[in-house]
Write a structure and sequence with these properties.
The protein has 227 residues and is α/β, with parallel strands linked by helices. The chain has 8 helices and 8 strands; from the N terminus they run αβαβαβαβαβαβαβαβ. It has a domain at 120-225: Rossmann fold, CATH 3.40.50. It starts with 19 loop residues before the first helix and ends with a strand.
């Protein structure tokens, strides 16, 4: 029997336009921070010019979290994966302005990056913060957190690695719990069905502030590989 094809959620829709400044940042700083992904395995040591703990943020949006963590943790390398040009341009400009050398950006579908670009046990942390919740039932299949995608993330995590997630959409939080608790290779740090307290080291972003203004609770999750 042939293996089932990988479920590929189209978890994003290209929205908005880049400003002229964001496009200039891409034109000028992409050679410094950008990673051209052609489906081949990524050599992270070569990309960053060193060996260090590696953090991958999927869908970094406008880059607030990615930039704050990279500035706070120069001992770690941060690979941001995002499809929206506006966010990419903003991160490139800010990384250059702040003199950050530990950020690289891939503008590509994160599912393919994990499937083809990241080797087994190559990543220390994976961050998925405030992904699009796709609230309408007919769009639930577009949600990023799906069993096949989770298995790709697990394969890339080191044995002592960690998967961190956050959302302000309670139905999506419940969906995340259902999918992640059902993955036998992961352990919920808070226990089955549980959420962790908001980590002090997770920067507050505009997505979280917007959710709070709307009266949404914030749900944080943390999973580690089962050893």
């Amino acid at each position: 029997m042939e293996p089932s094809p990988l479920v590929r959620p189209r978890s994003f829709v290209i929205r908005g336009r880049k400003t002229e400044a964001q496009q200039r940042a891409i034109d000028e700083f992409w050679p410094l921070y950008g990673v051209e992904f052609d489906g081949s395995p990524l050599d992270l040591d070569a990309l960053f010019g060193r060996t260090a703990p590696r953090v991958v943020e999927i869908g970094f949006g406008n880059g607030e979290n990615l930039l704050a963590l990279a500035a706070r943790h120069p001992e770690k390398d941060f690979l941001g994966v995002e499809v929206h040009g506006a966010g990419v341009g903003r991160v490139l400009a800010a990384a250059h302005e702040q003199g950050l050398s530990n950020i690289r950006v891939v503008r590509h579908d994160a599912v393919e990056v994990f499937e083809r670009g990241l080797g087994a046990a190559s990543v220390d942390e994976v961050l998925i913060f405030f992904p699009d919740p796709w609230p309408k039932a007919r769009h639930h299949r577009r949600r990023l957190v799906q069993p096949d995608v989770v298995r790709l993330i697990v394969a890339a995590l080191k044995p002592a690695g960690v998967l961190r997630l956050a959302t302000d959409w309670e139905p999506y939080a419940e969906h995340m719990i259902d999918v992640l608790d059902a993955e036998p290779a992961l352990v919920n740090v808070a226990g089955p069905g549980g959420f962790i307290p908001r980590p002090d080291d997770r920067p507050v972003t505009k997505f979280e502030r917007r959710g709070e203004r709307l009266g949404h609770a914030i749900f944080d999750l943390e999973y580690r590989p089962r050893v």
